[in-house]
Write a structure and sequence with these properties.
heterotrimer; A alpha/beta (about 170); B alpha+beta (about 625); C mainly alpha (about 120); B: about 625 residues; alpha+beta; six-stranded antiparallel β-sheet; C: about 120 residues; mainly alpha; 5 helices
Amino acid sequence: MKNKVSSLISILLFVLIFFLFYKGLKNSNIYTPVTKIEKDIPFFETKIFDKNEDISSNEIFIDDNRFYLLNIWASWCVPCVDEHPFLLELTKQQNLNLIGLNYKDNDIKAEKFLNELGNPYSIILLDYDGTLAIEWGAYGVPETFLIKEKKIIKKIIGPINDDYLNEIKELIK
Amino acid sequence: MASLIGFYSLIFGFCLSFFIIFFSIRNYKDSNNFDTKIISLTFLQLFFVIVSFFGLIFSFVTSDFSNETVFNHSHSTKPLFYKISGTWGNHEGSLLLWLLVLTLFIFLFLIRSKDQTKQYRVLTLLFQEIIIIGFFIFVIKTSSPFNYIFPVPDEGLGLNPILQDPALAIHPPILYLGYVGSSIIFSSTLSAVSLGYMSKGWASHIKQWILTSWIFLTLGILLGSIWAYYELGWGGFWFWDPVENVSLMPWLALTTLFHCVLVLEKKLILTSWVVVLSISTFALSMCGTFLVRSGILNSVHTFANDPERGLFILIFLFCLIFLSLFIFFFFHKPENKINYNFFLLSKETSILVNNWFMMYFLIVVLIGTIYPIFLEVISSQKISVGPPFYNKLIIPFLIPFLLAMALGPKLEWIKSKLENKIYLILFFVLSLFLSIFIIKILGTNFLFNTILITPAFYLFLITIRDFVSMKLKNLSQNIAHFGFSLLILSILFNNILSTETITNLKVGETFQAKNYKINFESIDQEERQNFQSFIAKFNIENSDGSIEILKPELRVYNQPNIITSEADIKTNLLRDKFITINVVQNQEYFNVRYQIKPLMIWIWLSVLLISLGGLTSLIKKKYEK
Amino acid sequence: MKLLKYLFLLFLIFNLSSLYAEEKNLKTEITKNLRCLVCQGQSVYDSDSEFADSIKILIDEKIKQGQDKQEIYQYLKDRYGQWILYEPEFSKNTYFLWIFPVFIFLIGGFLIFRLFIIKKN
């Protein structure tokens, strides 16, 4: 009797474990930090590229009728080269402002990068030590945030490609 | 050509399984003696797998890029040694290694078990063949190392440079001999249970297989840790990384199993423990294979992230588990409990206590590894379970565990009066004073780590005393337990006494630390076979006037495009001096990390001692025969 | 009897959380507990990646500002989720994780203990 009970329990237990593993397999194992939908943008202050001026986030994301695209990039980042054409394409969107965040970079090399590949940004912010990117919850480069009314409505990890480009275009209609 | 031979050899090996099963069943049912034809067939199967394996090695060595696996994981500029070891450094090749060990062990088992009954041997073979067939199907259907690609590429995609290391090259074969070798314990135990064959004699017989598997598993884990320490560059050797845990769990189960079998050799008790542990060891091995290869976990070591393969292993694993459960509940007759006269102070009890603690440790590691997966499935919440968790749950329990390890073996079978209590208490007091003395000198805080020194010392002293007074009696036990106490002591003191300096330096700059001065002299570039080498020269001036030269290296590989940092480590019996440099993006200075790590080499030596203990037991058994 | 002593000792020890090793250095303690998100299985303390470097700079700043361990952890959790912390917090999601192993230990102890009670009777 005791044997039957424990055998039943064991079998049920293992069936349960099997299903948990099975479902676990189905889930993605690449972790993307969860950015809550419609998360507020962080408040920050930093310097502007090429000018010796400070600026605060209040002054950047002022127009609630426009969309903003914050793109984290660096001259030493190889995938950033790949996504650059897509950023230039996005400058054609009337209701979108592209904002660059130059991440742990060297001013001269960054300048060279933009001269060679084009400058899609209406303004470029500096993040020499990478702490501003952390403020945004980014951890690598490139990463891109789509912002409306001071909230993050989409986060893209990795370079922008055709699919992401279309998604962005859809979202800002 | 070699790949073609390899492929067909694999198919032949697979087909042979059916012949083996046919002849085995026939032999099982008939009244003849063990059919030696079966051994020949088993050998033939092993032979085909070996040929297949060598076919793959040959393809790697000749850089045959028409083979998809070779293309994905090799490069013509790789040194020969690493071309060969690249064979098993990938998913498909490592599965071929699985098959090799599976077929090797069953063959060895058959020729070494001539004193056992025919039914037992045949049934063991049948169970093992189930596993073998499963892996054949897995390889051929989802993970063939002999896929053809056309057009043939000129060059391969190269192996991850971190994997080009001597320790890591031999780590998989050794580990698999342990890991996969536990399959034979699984098969033979299921066979023994089905036949009601478990006895004291059987325990003696199975002990050698347990020991063999255990020794290799211990060494395999050691090699993995040594590799991590020398290669990964931050001076650690155990991170509670899921893949490390996955090799530790079978080890814990196997160690516990071994101790239970020691009891079973003398008395017909703990049979249920033996059955469950035998099944669990191999199940944990397979579970580990699942976790590592299915993409369900995120780790440094994971192989292919392929859910299809993961699903196959998962189903296969659970089929084996359900089969084992069925056999256990249907066939296993627990021994008559009248035999149970456990006296408090007896060897049987101390083994039970051992089981109790070991199973606790096993569950801590198991839950820690698997819980994040389950939690994510249930609640979509992703959490990490890292070193703090394991340390908090394991270290405090090591204190009583070490004490039990010291006292347990002193107890006699059945009943004990604890002879010579005086020296036991004396040693304890001595250990206590030693620890307090050391803590005072070092000025460290009173923590679990420091409390742990006392029981570790206690075990240390007791085992030394036993060795001196009892000489060869229980030699293997003394060596292994002494090794363990040394391991704990080395890790503790290494942890307490290690120091580190992290600083940014340009060439020519100097950093003054409390007891030494770091001078960044120069950095030179050299061309190597498949990478550019940047060798930095540091000289360290110690406060006693001695000067050491250390040369950490940066390697820039071109295929794939990676920069690795190679530590320079100066080892002696007292301490390791460990230095690494790293590039800082966009800056002219380098990040320099210099560590002084006392007693590092004793950590490795103590694990070697532990394995030596196991080896001694194995050899002694041969002598007694 | 010895068993009881062990269990009691254990219970005592387990409650003395002040005996758990704490790093002498707050920054070291925090960075050792943080997962480097761009590395594979390394703590921020051990890693030299860009991400890890930036985190360390950030933590330096925050410590200078006077923030304590919990505030810093909360800041990072808000941005990266619980996953960035190596030590799982003791919350309703993780009761099972922390308690189950100890629970099993106590059950095991009880079962062994019972063996001797039965014997005495």
